[in-house]
Design goal:
This protein is of the alpha/beta class. The chain contains 8 helices and 9 strands.
Length: 265
Amino acid sequence: MKVPPSRPVVLCLSGHDPSGGAGLQADIEALLAQGCHAAPTVTALTVQDTQNVRDFRVLDREWVLAQAQAVIADLPVSAVKLGMLGSVEMVDTVIELLLQLPGIPLVCDPVLRAGGGGALGQDDVGFALRERLLPLALIATPNLPEARLLAELPEGSADQCAARLLPHCRHLLITGGHGDENEIHNRLYLRDGSRHDFTCPRLPGSYHGSGCTLASALAGRLALGEELVSAVRSALDYTWRTLRDAEQPGQGQYVPRRLPLDFCG
């Protein structure tokens, strides 16, 4: 019997969202849709729904290290996706793990706040991310509010935030969607000074888990060997389709439909 080739493995380090809209469930679904295998490591537990975050608890570093090291020892990791870390100690824990995976592309989604505005990290996490973790990433994918927090520019434009952040990371994708323009502008800034703009029509409503979806899809495309600019375009196109087809399972934000309804049919 001919055995099909294994799907690329993406190690995901992020929080658990019990509503299923964001966090590791979003990672798993988005990676399945790219044809990848998700290996999820839980960094934090949250109390949240589709409206907002009420509380969170970062796991002990020993538990996170044990989870991820079990994966690294057993599976050939082709990419790493980071989501919610929640504390400076967890930033340092992840850095320790990444040193075991030299040359593996890292997509960093700097999760600092939920869509409803609730905090998903201690106040000093943003500084630790910028100074110590972004330099290890192939690309970071903040939305504009997150980019402003990381750059410490409360009213900064995407260009201004990029100028402040690019010395800390190789490439930067700042996503739009938080204004009121008819078109959303997503801007990819490369270390060589070049820039690529991707636009898409604005969709009505607000969405829970869109950033997780995008970063995971991008990690999946990179794990499959797609070149960076093309992978960003593929991930953005996929994410827009998941938002176009989103559902409202609860009383708050819409949740992206990351898998087709006939996925198991």
